[in-house]
């Protein structure tokens, strides 16, 4: 009986020693200053970072305001479109001129889908309540919030929010 107790005690002591040694000898425990940890951001987070950068840069914001006026859309919508373009560009999604016709057709299709989604949002009372709340929170126009939600929904349908 005493031997069995002593053997169990010895077993646990050896096990504890092995776990301790393996933990402290693990190479992952010590940080190497040359190793960089990359945390992936969502598409939407990256777009929002660029929008914030636009807001903080007077020249860039003035350019956005000018383009918005030329295209007869709100500044918020233009900022969102430019930010999305930049993220897509960073991801290598802009194609070369040899496929411009296909891109133009796809863009026209996406723009139509966005307009259809905007119409759907405007017809849904619950959705409009939510849009009004978010627009007020973000201090943007209701039209800009409808555009942003419509774009987000079309992107969601296209799987752009998945990592």
Structural commentary:
The protein is mostly helical and 163 residues long. The protein folds into two domains: 41-94, no CATH class; 96-163, no CATH class. It contains seven helices and no strands. The chain is globular. The protein starts with a helix and ends in a 6-residue tail after the last helix.
Low-confidence stretches: 26-30
What is the string of SSEs from the N terminus onward? HHHHHHH
Mean pLDDT: 77
DSSP E strands, number: 0
Distance between the termini: 59 Å
Quickly give the structural class. Answer: mainly alpha
User: What is the number of independent domains?
Assistant: 2
What's the shape? globular
Q: Percentage of helical residues?
A: over 70%
Major sheet: none
Counting DSSP H or I runs of 4 or more residues, the number of helices is 7
Radius of gyration: 27 Å
Give the key terms:
163 residues; mainly alpha; 2 domains; 7 helices; 75% helix; 0% strand; globular
Q: Secondary-structure map with pairings?
A:
Layout: H1 2-25, H2 43-56, H3 58-71, H4 75-90, H5 100-123, H6 125-138, H7 142-157
Q: TL;DR of this structure?
A:
The protein is mostly helical and 163 residues long.
């Amino acid at each position: 009986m005493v031997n069995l107790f002593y053997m169990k005690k010895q077993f646990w002591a050896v096990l504890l020693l092995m776990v301790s040694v393996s933990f402290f000898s693990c190479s992952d425990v010590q940080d190497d200053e040359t190793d960089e940890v990359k945390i992936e951001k969502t598409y939407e987070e990256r777009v929002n970072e660029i929008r914030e950068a636009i807001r903080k840069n007077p020249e860039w914001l003035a350019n956005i305001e000018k383009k918005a006026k030329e295209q007869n859309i709100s500044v918020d919508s233009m900022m969102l479109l430019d930010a999305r373009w930049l993220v897509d560009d960073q991801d290598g999604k802009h194609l070369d001129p040899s496929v411009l016709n296909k891109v133009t057709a796809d863009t026209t299709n996406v723009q139509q889908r966005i307009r259809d989604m905007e119409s759907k949002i405007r017809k849904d009372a619950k959705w409009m309540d939510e849009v009004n709340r978010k627009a007020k929170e973000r201090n943007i126009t209701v039209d800009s919030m409808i555009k942003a939600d419509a774009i987000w929904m079309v992107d969601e349908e296209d799987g752009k929010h998945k990592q």
